[in-house]
Write a structure and sequence with these properties.
The structure holds 2 protein chains of 2 kinds. By secondary structure, chain A is of the alpha/beta class. Chain A has 7 helices and 10 strands. A 3-stranded antiparallel β-sheet of chain B has the order 1-3-2. Chain B is elongated, with a radius of gyration of 26 Å. The C terminus of chain B is likely disordered. The chains are: A alpha/beta, B mainly alpha.
Chain lengths: 240, 193
Amino acid sequence: MSLLELRGVSKVYGSGPSEVRALRGVDLSVDAGSMVAVMGPSGSGKSSLLTVAGGLERPTDGAVRIEGADLAGMSRAGLARLRRRTVGYVFQNYNLLPGLTAVENVALPLELDGTPAKAARSSALTALDELGLSDRADGYPADLSGGERQRVAIARAIVGERRLLLADEPSGALDSANGEAVMRLLHAACKRGVAAVVVTHDAQLASWADRVLFLRDGRVADQTAPLPGPDSLLTPGPNR
Amino acid sequence: MSVRHALLALLSEGPKYGLQLRAEFEARTGEVWPLNVGQVYTTLQRLERDGLIESEDTVEAGPQKGFQITTEGARELAEWLRTPPDLTSPPRDELVIKILVALRVPGTDVHEVIQVHRRYVVELMQQWTRLKDDESASDLHLALVIDAELFRLDAVVRWLDSADGRLHRAALDPPAPPAPATAPRLRRVGVRR
């Protein structure tokens, strides 16, 4: 069963002459342990796809299911609970709270969900340790480098039992070495069973995904084929 | 790729045998550029003829014959390393030509042609990235080769994205046709000369 499933999803903003059709009949399935990248030009619907997939906005038409549960049938409180427990978000500008330390930022979603402070801090420290940040746990965002801030944001997104990771240009503000480090972390999370959707205009970033979707005018215009075996590039071809 | 200078570089580390040179060349290039043994020996013969390397006189030609770099060879290698490759004129890029031709073929959707190439290049990048994830932590040379290929392919995707956007904008706001008076005026200038 797919962890995330979108069927015939459309999203319309505004009405009349100012109507914008951001998504038009999008189908998407993402299995546990796999990463899907979504590429497309500005205005193609990439960010709308992410907000609808994560339950931050309701679709105008169509169905969104996370772990088989249709989001349309959920109450506001139920949807909020699902977002806190199951879905992690990573944004280009990190979205860390400046008045909280790294470990407090990571522990926050667990505490909001009712986890006792001590247990939440312990889980947050484990998540930071997995991302090589245990020595920066008590630093404030302003004291961290861009790469470290994004790693804290990833730790916050995967802490606890999150099974769906949604990332919007997660390495957009970073240099290529830090950008690669971020993608390695997201990829490693997928290898541990997390499903991820990464929205980007950056082909190097998208190339970490198992599948790349190309959005155009709110529609899935194309997608990559399944990857061949690992030795395909090292087999001498006619041009080598 | 200059096999000649790659062999000189390997010999700058100390004397080596032909088969050893082949194995080390492939290892240093992340096994992305296979080299046949005949190519190695032909290149070694030419380097020796040009005085850039010398071989052990006492050993017959074959796998046990050792080679070492000469002073002239070391000078040639240092000069080659610091000579930039010729990047002054754009290469004849088949992809660029295909997109330009697609614009002129009736009934062809150039955006669809662009997407076919974009998808292919991204699929190639996925394969390189998978290889980087699997192998490059333990192989610095391979990591460098893969990075070079990923940046090159990334530039291709960026160009396709840019061309796609430029063609969309041009379709919405086509450039004004040239003024009809231009040609006769030019002709008059030509007559005066």
